Amino acid sequence: MKTVLIINSSAKKGNTCNLLSQIENLLKDHGFSTEIINLFDYKTEDCLGCQKCVLCGSCCICDDVPSLMQKMLSCDGIVLSSPVYIENVCGKLKTFMDRTYGWYHMPMIADKPVLYTAASYATGIRQIKQAFRSISISWGTPHAGSVTRTVRDINKPVQISEIKKLIKVLNEGNQIYSPSFYEINIFNVKKVMAQKSQGCDHEYWANHALFDKMYYYNCKLSFAKNAFSKIVFIILMRAMGTSRDALCV
Length: 249
Known about the structure:
This protein is an alpha/beta fold. It has helices at residues 15-29, 52-55, 65-74, 91-99, 101-105, 125-139, 164-172, 181-196, 200-207, 223-239, 244-248, and strands at residues 3-8, 33-38, 77-83, 114-119, 143-149. The protein has a five-stranded parallel sheet, with helices on both faces. Strand 4, helix 6 (125-139) and strand 5 form a beta-alpha-beta unit. It is globular, with a radius of gyration of 18 Å.
């Protein structure tokens, strides 16, 4: 049975939690195992920006974030949520996202589809959707849609159609996912950075044969997207003549 990890970043048991509860019930009805974690139940310190997670392979901060990241590594899919604060994700979630910095360079969860959930009293849904999109692109994960509500439709029950993309990718695999040209471009930026690096990211990409791939995993890449991926990689390799580690000193 496949497991979906549901991450709640709201301090209150209100609208965001209600949406997550409905999503959990729908997932269970379709044969998935679920686990909900509340970020406020865990100690999550701010990222120091030291890059030790990439250069040395581990974080120097002692808190609950490594165990939370392990849960994400162990599941098959993720539901990530946030209330809308000042037209963006809440601070608790942003702090946690910052701590996954290593996954930008070492795409350890790139094979896990992510569904995003947000609730707002009024505005900010468009902006938070973009923020969620950026998270998916940073992790390299398949973006499996979003479930959002405002005060106008907060009482509308979550429909199975709103999570069908997540269910479809979980059941059929990432080969049905078609990344955008921008996602492919970011993949190649990361590939070149790893190629030029002397840190753990280079070792990770080499061990997982990612240097030979056009994307993180087998997926729907048209002839045009395959060609685009090859060309972008060549251009970036020529442009970045200095090692990334030297640039970070």
